[in-house]
Amino acid sequence: MKRYKKMLVCLDGSRHDAPLVAYAGGRSQVAESEEIHFLHVVEEAPAPPDEGGPAEVTSDTIAALVAERFSGHGGEKTAYEVVRGARLLESLRYAYEKDIDLIVLSRHYARKTDEDDEALLARRITRKATCSVLVLPEDYARQADELIVPVRDSDCSAQALEVACGVAEVTGARVTALNIFPVHGGYSRVGKTLEEHTALLKAAAERECDNLLERTDTHGVTVTCNCLPDMGDDPVGVILDVLGDGQGKAVVIGARGRSGAAGVLLGNVTEQLIRRAPSPVAAVKKKGEQVGIIQALLMLAGQG
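Below the sequence we write its predicted structure tokens.
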């Protein structure tokens, strides 16, 4: 699987960097990446270590961490850079200018206090990035045995499913296409019971999965379709139930859905999973589709 030739790993000088670097090594093995970029953005001058501040992060300290924790396929080039500026803008700018295919970062990226929204910056980067983004929960280091792909019959879902199958082709992981269908009221007015209504909706969801598989390159990987009812208008809750404690699992989800309400729902589901999932969440994007947003941000910052 050579989809992600250039990876960007966003570091913040915290204890989360070491497992993040180790996990990125595993991703590089799977993707046979050609370049791995490690970036640390300094937003303000750190307090000296003797005054209680963390040790200053330099390209040399990053290189030392990578030498200790990173284990790729051996043929990738590595680059280390420390820049000053706003973390959101500089991360996006670097990914855009270096033509990055996949951004890897921790859910806790740049979190300052326990009261912070721990996934705020990760979600903002995922929204605006011009490429796919992989977000890891705290200290997650295990490679996935099962890839959960929330789907609809859409181009967005087909792209995410193809990525998951490409990973599974290399790693041997299982792939589950998870179609969550909402169950609303009103069925009694047409003479149906709840069970009959749910059965009809499940059959429609299964046909949707069949249509999706017919037009998706699964790389010869067997995909299991799991169609589950959403009885409480809470698709994220259903996904979290499927994930359980999250060990050995990862979520691969399209970052954009169909037009209209379905697209809004899928975006909301992706963001909530980044905040709450106990497993890594890969938000798959069509590369370059948001270049205009990045260019506008750079212009506003006086860098365009």
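The beta strands are 6-11, 35-42, 77-84, 102-106, 132-136, 146-150, 174-182, 223-230, 249-254, 281-284.
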